Amino acid sequence: MIEVINPGLHTTVQDQGRLNHRHFGVPTSGAMDQHAYILANHLLQHQSLKPVLEFTISGPTLFFYAETYIVLTGAEFDVQLNGKEITHSSPIYVPAESTLAIGQAKTGNYGYLGILEGFSTVKVLESVSYHPSINPGAKLTKDMQLLYVKTQFQPLDFNARVIPIHDKFCRTRLDVYPGPEFDCLGKDDQEKLFNHKYFVKPKSNRMAVQLGNTPDLTAPEIITAPVQPGTVQLTPSGELIILMRDAQTTGGYARILQLTDHAMNSLSQCKIGKKEEVTFHKK
Amino acid sequence: MKKSPSISQFGDHGLIIRYSDEIDYKIHLQLDTVTNKVLKKFKKYIEGYSIAYQESAIYFHPEFKIEKKIKKITQFITDIVPQEILEDQKEIIQIPVCYEKPFALDIDELAQEKQIETSKIIDLHTSPIYPVYFIGFAPGFPYLGGMDKQLSFPRKASPRKSVAAGSVGIAGNQTGVYPNASPGGWNIIGRSPLCFFDVTKTQPSLLQAGDLIQFRSIDKKTFDHIEKQVELGQYSLEKIANND
């Protein structure tokens, strides 16, 4: 069992998301950086994908009652296990009665904590991913307890070594498809979208990323239509909004572009502010 | 009459089926039928879907290479014959609503502003048969068509911090029900004791695209009674035949 000493800013249980309930208006949710989520599972040699914890900006402090293995993926944070720094992207043995303190993000936005055999959180509508009106208990609060399976340890042969790539250019280069309303823009306006450097505005969160330094473009509202994570909306006032994992399933703004899955994961780790220049590229 | 939809890829694994650019219930029914046929035919490759007024999106498993299959799906849709799109006679789901205090927060203001008596507002709201176009915006939130234009009223200038689950409201030309307690700017004219979104059920949303509903006025005593029945899981939805 884990006891939550400090929940951090916004720490939630996540998995691949609730993909099959969108027709009931249920957002997909799921780990913002699916690549990091899958990597955490692979590093722990899970046969199938198991739930992880996702934290952002400022991570949680957790007390482990029983021994286990953990792994950290995604954004790099300052992390100490019983007062000692631990490495990112490789499995770590956690003795019984350990304290794991996850501090501030150093690179990216979303960090992941995987645990051997995953957290034993109950699935609601086929997923453990947090949504306030579906499973409010999947967000960490002070003193709450998290369960994990106490497995009999087979001596695990952890040889995996992963070197995360921190190439800003890779992270900020977003591959996109044309969206359903792309052709409503003139040729010149379409080109403007691609020959432009954007940045991530502070208002961004798990529902949407708002882009700054937008070109001089607008689009009228549309009749409410399906949207998905990665849909780039252009509003009548010229804002560019990229829907993220907790977004609604339908929307009324023009859908001018659609990010690839890979671009979604990259964008989730783009830092807020003008230092990182985000660009769109035709897939 | 059969209209042909346009079909296009939507991201890595999505497909959009799109009809005309205006809200038309007859065309929406074609969209509904065609979407359901695609869902059935390609069931094992589909991860999820959503539907709106004149468009649906179907999301396939990543292993299903959509760009290679899009021709096949388009052909399948084109081959659906018009007769198959005819809509069956449907039942109308009865939604009990108490239009009294303390639930009907804004009904007096609406009556005053519109110069319509409160009882007439209730009549106008309970008369139509409303089609459920789709569920969107929030879990279990139904997009309804068919509200009487006399009831049109702009949303509140500043939204309430919390609107109770089951609240029935009006915003612009639309009427709807809040499935969960949430902030909201709709004008609240009553409350239904039914549970519109229940995660413990296999079909969590009480309503779904393609349903027909009608609101039925109940008093506070009946509200309390139904609310209790719903809580105990003993309430069964009342449905009447559609004779249109």
Automatic annotation (TrEMBL), chain A:
Keywords: ATP-binding, Hydrolase, Nucleotide-binding, Transferase. Residues 23-283 form the Carboxyltransferase domain. InterPro entries: CT_A_B, Cyclophilin-like_dom_sf, PxpC. It holds the Pfam family CT_A_B. It comes from the Bacteria. GO terms for molecular function: ATP binding; hydrolase activity; transferase activity. Transmembrane segments: none annotated. This is Biotin-dependent carboxyltransferase family protein.
Automatic annotation (TrEMBL), chain B:
Residues 5-207 form the Carboxyltransferase domain. It is an enzyme of class 3 (hydrolase). Keywords: ATP-binding, Hydrolase, Nucleotide-binding. It comes from the Bacteria. Its EC number is 3.5.2.9. Coiled coil: none annotated. SMART domains: AHS1. GO terms for molecular function: 5-oxoprolinase (ATP-hydrolyzing) activity; ATP binding. It holds the Pfam family CT_C_D. SUPFAM superfamilies: Cyclophilin-like, PH0987 N-terminal domain-like. InterPro entries: CT_C_D, Cyclophilin-like_dom_sf, PxpB. This is 5-oxoprolinase subunit PxpB. The gene is pxpB.
